[in-house]
Amino acid sequence: MTALTNCRAVTISDALIEKATILIEGGIIKAVGQNIEVPGGAEVINLKGKYVTPGFIDAHSHLAMGEPGVKGSGDDDNECSAPVTAHVRMQDSLDPESIGITEARKGGFTTVCTLPGSGNVIGGTGVAVKLKDAKCTEELIIPGTTVMKMALGENPKGVYGQRKQMPITRMGTAAILRETLFGAKQYANEKEEAEKEGKPFKKDFRLEPLVPVIRGEMRCRIHCHRADDILTAIRISEEFGLDYVLEHCTEGFKVADILAEKKAKCVVGPLRMIPSKMEVWNCTIENPAMLEKAGCEICITADAQSATRWLPEEVGLAMAYGLSEEMAFKSLTINPAKVLGLENRLGSIEAGKDADLAVFDGHPFSNMTRCKAVMIEGRFYFNEL
Q1: Burial label, 216 (beta-carbon count in 10 A; 0-12, 13-18, 19+)
Q2: Which domains are assigned to the chain?
Q3: In angstroms, how far is CA 36 from the centroid of its own chain?
Q4: Which of 49, 110, 220, 254 has an alpha carbon 20 to 30 Å from 138's alpha carbon atom?
């Protein structure tokens, strides 16, 4: 058993607990609070007033799939050979020895959802991973977290438009998405009917991954920056009964009332994008605060690889522009845990949850603060205490 004592525990599920003790056994949090009796024989680590948070979670990452601009690292997150590649899997590109894993841990991150890129209308599946040391991807992947990546806006029409291939326009992108989902629905119905009647059924390798999507059993992660793309994502999702999450939501502030009314899950960011393309010209650091004010529950993302390490700074900037401290902490903990369907295991410091924790020598979102240690399932993977 390990006891982290004399810390400021940001529990998320309850108030911040001063002079707290956190008991850990078998990779699980056993107890958290003040005046907790430490069993004899436990390893005691006095944190001397340091902050302890749940391990941070980035719900939208491209971690361990090649560093941008680094020769030889590979660009393994976009299979831009066809607008629809639902059958490709991120886990087949994931490098368990990527420098991004160790770098992200230094920022307090213990879990990310790493996704295919947004070059295709349907880009394939991503999964959530624990940022542990591993020799193979299976040791990192959290079972049951597979999601389907989709994209609207300038990326897919930019990739294929220059080839004079559909989609060239936003309406072409939406048409491809609708047509593919319609075909997947027909395929799913035919498959179900054949199974009921005990008849043979020839599987389609490219449509099979979309069966749980069209049945609402697999969550869709839809890239959409501009307000009209956000609304298109909602429109198509509602038309086909998809379980969806809106990715980036750069102009979410323009339609915040609609997002709040629909209780849409929003993964917001990056927050400091340069105006590299028209759909992000209205990127503003005030977006998270405006979404919160409207009543939205948000996550904040770095949308990065090893640069995930610096995301807490961006969250601190969002606080400077109106985001509440409560939502700031939720945006990197319990809210992304909910997006990933892992809220029963991750996202707060509570008895029974995974002992995924980060230790900071100051407020976690201050650029004057350093992460001093990261624990995943009760084991230190980064420790400068």
Answers
A1: middle
A2: 1-54+348-385 (2.30.40.10), 56-346 (3.20.20.140)
A3: 34
A4: 220
- Secondary element (H or E) of residue 318: helix 311-320
How does DSSP assign 34-94, residue by residue? SSPPPPTT-EEEE-TT-EEEEPEEEEEE-TTS--TT-TTS---S--TTSSB-TT-BGGGT-
Find the Cα–Cα–Cα–Cα dihedral 173, 335, 90, 270, rounded to 10°.
Answer: 60
Cβ neighbours for 175, distance < 8 A, ≥ 6 positions apart: 166, 167
CB 64 within 8 A of CB 127: no
Residues 6+ apart with CB under 8 A from 192: none
Burial of 226 (0-12, 13-18, 19+ CB in 10 A): buried
Do 93 and 76 meet the contact criterion of CB atoms below 8 Å apart? yes
- 């179900």: which residue's tokens? 192
CB neighbours of 341 closer than 8 A, spacing ≥ 6?
Answer: 144, 145, 219
Q: Is the separation of the CB atoms in 339 and 299 below 8 Å?
A: yes
Q: Which of 19, 115, 2 is nearest to 64 (CA)?
A: 115
Q: Cβ(66)–Cβ(76) under 8 Å?
A: yes
Tell me the pLDDT of the chain (385 aa) as tens digits: 999 999 999 999 998 999 999 999 999 999 999 989 999 999 999 999 999 999 999 999 999 887 765 555 557 889 999 999 999 999 999 999 999 999 999 999 999 999 999 999 999 999 999 999 999 999 999 999 999 999 999 999 999 999 999 999 999 999 999 999 999 999 999 999 999 999 999 999 999 999 999 999 999 999 999 999 999 999 999 999 999 999 999 999 999 999 999 999 999 999 999 999 999 999 999 999 999 999 999 999 999 999 999 999 999 999 999 999 999 999 999 999 999 999 999 999 999 999 999 999 999 999 999 999 999 999 999 999 9
Bridge-based pairing state of the strands 265-268 and 298-300: parallel
The verdict on whether omega for the bond into residue 275 sits within 30 degrees of 0, i.e. cis, is no
Structure tokens of 166?
């559909």
3-state SS class at 131: coil
State pTM to two decimals. Answer: 0.96
